[in-house]
Structures are given as structure tokens and as C-alpha cells.
Amino acid sequence: MKSRSAFEFTVWKMLRQNRKLYFWTFTLREVHSLTEAMQFWNEFLTLLKRKVQFRGVRVLELHEEHGCHFHVITNERFRIEEVLALGKRYGFGRTNVKRVTDAAQAVSYLCKYLSKPRVRCLRRARLWSAFGKIERTRVRDVLVDTPKVRLLRRIMGKPSVEDELNGIQSAKIWRGELNFGRALQKAEIAYLLSFDPEYLERQQIWQKARFAGLLDLSHPWSMGNRPDGET
Prior knowledge:
By secondary structure, the protein is of the alpha+beta class. It is 43% helix and 15% strand. It is built from 8 helices and 5 strands; from the N terminus they run αβαββαβαβαααα. The chain has a 5-stranded antiparallel sheet with strand order 4-1-3-2-5, with helices on both faces. Helix 2 (34-52) packs across helix 3 (80-87) and helix 5 (147-155) crosses helix 7. The longest helix has 19 residues, at 34-52.
């Protein structure tokens, strides 16, 4: 959620600099591994920034058949002939660009790729990044303020949202939970207990009944419960 918000804020800042946005799609001629595709893109982008001062935000799409697509939003018009000539050096073939007539729709379209569950090869990949001389919002600059997040920050020993926004570094009097997974689990329990004091008691009763074999957890339509020959 923070990454998506940072992406949206960056695009709106670009729109504030220039009311005209352009939507680019770059596709490699051949299907490559993610590592190779990102290497080609980074080398291509380095050349674009040096030769034509290319700037904007990039979103990575993993297509089922065509490999990696690189979607880019810029707030400046660049000559497609010059971009195509540079792209051929790094294996880029079909390149498309069009004027953005609805910025909200374009942002929503690209956010779709940021919200999808990540496949294994994308787990460490940066799904989006900003490049060139543009004003941007980084993920670490985004603060989420919800009751559960407030509990999570307290459990991990981090300053409150208000203190962080005001630049106040509160002195730590205890060591917070360093493991994010455990801290999140504790925050979820504390959040549920805040409006459901009997939550833990019910969970303990349910677990005892489960281990005693008093609960049938099998689904009536699971494969193991179907009559022979029934599909």
C-alpha cells in the first residue's frame, strides 16, 4: 500500500510540473529472464537519460507470453524516432507512446500491476521506480496512520506518527520487537482485543476443541469426501 501510494504521489507531482503526460510501453524483441531484461532496460535507460534527458516513472509488467514490459509515464514529449534508434541497441522492438488524456485512469491502470500478488521471480524486483530530474515521493516518505499501525509502531519501539511528522525523536526506554512478522501478529491481537476482550478466550476454547478431535474441519465438497466416480 505504501509503495502504491508513493507511486501515485510521484505521478501527481509530475502532473503539477507539466499538465501534459505521455504513456510509453517498451517491449523487448525476445523473451529474456527477469535479470537479463532488467539489465537491458537499465543500460537503455542510462543512455536515454544521457542522450535525451529522459525522465519519469517506470512500472514493470510481467506478461505471460511476451516476458517483461516496461511502462513509463513522462511529463515531457520526446521524439519517438530518437528513442527507437537507441532502443534497438539493447534489443527493444515494439515501442508505443500516446498522450495521456485521463491521468487518474492511467495511474489506476498501472497500479493494477503494483497490486497483483507477486510471482516468485518478482519478489525482490522493484515494480516501479522514478528516474531523471523529477520531484518524487519515496516509499519511506509515506506514513500510514490507522489504529493497527499505531499499535504496530508502538510494539516495534518506533516513534508515533505525530512525532515522526514533527521530526521528534523520542528516547527509547525499552527494546521493541525487531521481527516484523511477530510484531504484526502482536499488533493484530492487540487490535482485536481493543474491541473484543474475549477474543483470546474464544481462540483458546476453539484450539482445545480442535486438538481434542471435536471439530470436523474437512470440507463436504473436498476431494476426500466425494463419492467414488463423482466429479
